[in-house]
Protein 1
Amino acid sequence: MISYLEGTAIAKNEKSAMILVNGVGYKVFFSVGDLNTIALGGDPVKAFTHLQVKEDALELYGFLDRSALELFELLITISGIGPKVALAILSMESPSVLAGAIAREDVKFLTKVSGVGLKSAQKIVLELHEKIAKVSFAMHDAGASADADAIDALVALGWSARDARDALKNIPKEIERTDLRIKEALKALGR
């Protein structure tokens, strides 16, 4: 089992990176956030990994943070949630915020992921609600439900849900009205 890699990124695309370790290149699938962090030929990439063994392939999934690996391995225990969907879920938000959404049973938050419908989100909450309390990392609320309407509005205007959430995180909590939060987020996104 390959559970950790440390090497240089020599190539990458929108789903994976090629990590060179002692002359051997490993194709590793990463979340969007992790891929954006990885620089080609830069600092060594240190990734916790999960090896998925299939009938016709071996696929390696990498995570720059151990908590992301922990949540990934919980997600793929659910019937109907494969590694690609689990990676899409982890691309949406940090593991601590996702764990917080599962803990507070926020199905609407989880349905924002491409490939996760209402039934899948309900299944995730149902199957992981008790297990999520035992994770080794802290869970955060991050105001996901409070900003849900603002995120929906920004997505309707063409921004990604992740960009919308990132912009809203930087807005002072004193600005409570949704329309003012959207206005401030648009200013930040326009820079």
Protein 2
Amino acid sequence: MIFTVTLLRRAALLLAVCLLPVLPVFATIDDAHSFAMEAAIPFVKKGFIVREDYWNGEVKSGQRLMVKHQMFKGNEYAFWIGCPEDDAEFELTVLDEKGVEIALDFTASQYFASMRVNPPRSGTYTVIFSVSSKSSKSLYWALAYGYR
């Protein structure tokens, strides 16, 4: 009897180990934030300070979102957006109060994108962004920022 229970436990453990590679991998908001932080690495090496607070959520593919952000003349800012989808495409722009884009540069890779801005005056700016995917209808995203 004891031998049978031990054998059944071993068989169940072996079955569980064999099924691990077959189980689907699910992305999370934490994964999206990790990719946004990966985008920040080159900026940190150039002296940017990463803020602890960030925005995140789940959005329909291609849906545009916006956040308002206070920026000060004399500081340079960077925004980093991450998404754990393999085929993610990003849009990211920053507008002043008149709707004029103030971006210095935009770069994107497979899991993240970054935008660097230098505000011409202190004020509230609008950060507009979207994440799109052909393979997913709903996407996790995280938008972080820093300054120097």
